[in-house]
Design a protein that fits this description.
The chain is 31% helix and 39% strand. The chain is an alpha+beta fold.
Length: 186
């Protein structure tokens, strides 16, 4: 199974992101758009995972979640990775207080203890809206991004994190939640 740990989004946030995607699609950029129902905030991508590891992953997620209370995450801003000259990913930002970074760091550490490879890149909280297939139409899209680069798409109260399985299909990935772990509710 291909698995990852993520924060899932509210329907309101997904609807706002769908609207901005619809606007951006009119630019004619050669982008493969992520279906709004599949947009999430990845905390850790594990890749191929065995059934046996699933229980260890959930236990580690539970241990991490015990340390953190619910928090607010604002979906705000946008840009391109790695840069505007040779973009690969169009993203929307996610801003939380220190809780988000702490939670992600504890998740990363816990997965390392189980045997998953640690991520070398610094964690940058973001939601992927689309992936560039080529640079066709990039300039038109860049103009639109500049108009919206500081927009807020709403906020969510994060109460849980999810272990999600990704099934690859010719029509795109399908995500199935395997477990949801609640943050401390104090």
């Amino acid at each position: 199974m291909r698995c990852f740990i993520a924060i899932e989004l509210s329907h309101e946030i997904k609807s706002a992101l769908r609207s901005i995607q619809d606007e951006f699609k009119k630019c004619g950029a050669d982008v493969r758009w992520v279906h709004p129902d599949n947009i999430h905030l990845t905390l850790k991508f594990m890749g191929n995972t065995s059934e046996t590891d699933t229980r260890k992953i959930i236990n580690s997620m539970t241990d991490a979640c015990k340390k953190y209370q619910t928090f607010t995450l604002e979906i705000k801003g946008m840009g391109m990775f790695p840069n505007i000259n040779s973009p690969r990913v169009l993203w929307v930002g996610a801003e939380g207080d220190g809780i988000l970074k702490g939670l992600q760091k504890d998740i990363e550490h816990g997965m390392g203890e189980i045997g998953f490879e640690l991520e070398n890149r610094k964690f940058t909280a973001h939601l992927t809206l689309g992936r560039f297939r080529s640079l066709t139409g990039k300039e038109n899209l860049l103009e639109q991004i500049k108009l919206h680069e500081n927009d807020s798409f709403g906020a969510i109260n994060v109460k849980s994190i999810s272990l999600i399985k990704s099934d690859l299909h010719p029509s795109g990935s399908r995500y199935i939640r395997l477990a949801e772990v609640l943050l401390c509710q104090n």
